[in-house]
Design brief:
alpha/beta; Urease, subunit C, domain 1; TIM Barrel; 2 domains; nine-stranded parallel sheet; six-stranded mixed sheet; 17 helices; globular; disordered C terminus; binds zinc ion
């Protein structure tokens, strides 16, 4: 049974950070052989029970929950950093031409390999990811995630109109392919399927209706899409679906708002929309680096909190500019600053970190499963080295509180801070 001794970060149910400067994390296999957290807390409280065997001592390091990325596009790994005037030109000039290549299983497999390695290098252990409209792309990502025993959710994109040849799919076949992928992959090992309409403007009503029927037939399956990111996109959605009250309502009208439904952006929502998100259990994947990069706008934290709708953080690579959760958390801080005038206070370091770990897991319906290191959680964690760069070492050494320590890492951190990423293994009886 592996026991680790180092500083330890985890979260209470209310989202508050729990930090033990000298902590103990004990991990052991469950009935299926998967590694789970057996105990987590202060070394002085737990050492008598768990510290008598071999202990991996990590002085100067911090063990923290693996990050959860609620929205990322694996085929856009090579689109990251493409200049464009906004969302729609960016899709047309960069994203769609590139996504055509994923019709080839070999190419999909090669990018999937790089993508998963990049997530893990950055400390991301759970992701809800878009593939492309080609079933081969989703298949390739499932295979690679399974190889790493990773908890990953993805789905073939549905887009049967307003899309160029090579990425546009066929309405009937797209739904057949979706159901076949659900049956092949959902619930296998740690994998999950997400029904994935790209966004309302690129799906016919027939395709959205079919997606909603699948969502009702498979309630454990996730749904992922985009909503209310950009004003031109919103106008377009209104033109295409004039009967729906709002862009978000289009999804509701087709049965695509429910628990486990994750909508990227949710920037330009009104009060009715936010209440609809709350009442249906659908959640927002807040994607601040992407929103700043494409000039889309700012997620309204104050209103989301006031109404009580769920949310968590996401990179949205390749509209987003980084795989690093530290960059995403810092961008979320900037976005929160923008809304500060309304609310009078900014996002705390603990709340930023929670949004990318336990909070994101809760939004995905995976509270107590991933994103935290409380007893019973699957043992996905990262080892952080606050001495990774001279400036990090100097600044974190002067941190006088948990908030100061977390914030120094959010502002100065990147992949260099993540010394090791550990995935809960089912097969090997060890989590190393
Ligand atoms: Zn996206």
């Amino acid at each position: 049974m592996p026991v680790f001794r180092s500083a330890l970060l985890r979260f209470a149910d209310d989202g508050m950070a729990l930090f033990d400067p000298d902590g103990l994390l004990a991990v052991g296999p469950d009935a299926q052989g998967r590694q789970r957290v057996l105990a987590a807390g202060a070394w002085s409280d737990l050492a008598l029970r768990f510290g008598s065997g071999p202990v991996e001592h990590l002085p100067g390091r911090i063990i923290a929950p693996g990050f959860v990325d609620m929205h990322i596009h694996f085929p856009q790994t090579d689109v990251i950093g493409s200049p464009a005037d906004g969302l729609l030109p960016w899709l047309e000039n960069y994203t769609f031409p590139h996504e055509k290549r994923f019709v080839a299983p070999d190419y999909s497999a090669q990018v999937a390999q790089f993508f998963i390695a990049e997530l893990l290098r950055n400390g991301v252990t759970t992701a809800l990811a878009f593939a492309t409209s080609h079933p081969a792309s989703a298949q390739a990502l499932f295979v690679e995630a399974q190889h790493h025993q990773m908890r990953l959710i993805t789905g073939k994109v549905l887009q049967d109109r307003h899309s160029p040849d090579g990425v546009r799919d066929d309405t009937e076949q797209s739904l057949i392919d979706t159901e076949a992928l659900i049956q092949r992959w959902h619930g296998v090992d740690r994998l999950g399927y997400a029904i994935t309409p790209r966004f309302a403007p690129t799906s016919t009503p027939e395709q959205l209706r079919g997606a909603g029927e699948l969502a009702a037939r498979y309630p454990g399956v996730w749904i992922q899409s985009h909503v209310a990111e950009n004003l031109d996109e919103i106008r377009w959605a209104h033109e295409l679906f004039p009967a729906s009250r709002s862009y978000l309502s289009v999804y509701d009208d087709f049965g695509l708002l429910r628990e486990r439904a994750v909508y990227a952006h949710c920037i330009h929502l009104d009060e009715h929309d936010r209440a609809l998100m709350r009442d249906t259990g659908a959640v927002a994947a807040v994607s601040p680096t992407s929103n700043l990069f494409l000039g889309s706008g700012f997620f309204d934290y104050a209103e989301a909190d006031r109404v009580g709708m769920g949310y968590g953080l996401a990179s949205d690579v390749g509209g987003g500019t980084s795989f690093s959760p530290f960059h995403t958390m810092l961008a979320a801080y900037y976005v929160g600053r923008e809304g500060q005038a309304k609310r009078g206070l900014s996002l705390s370091p603990q709340h930023l970190w929670w949004q990318h770990t336990a909070g994101a897991a809760r939004a995905l319906g995976l509270a107590g499963v991933v994103g935290n290191l409380q007893p019973g959680c699957e043992a996905d964690f990262i080892v952080l080295n606050p001495q990774a760069t001279p400036l990090l070492a100097r600044r974190t050494a002067q941190a006088g509180s948990i908030d100061e320590l977390l914030f120094a890492m959010i502002v100065l951190g990147d992949d260099r801070l993540v010394e090791k990423t550990v995935i809960s293994q089912a097969k090997y009886g060890s989590c190393a």
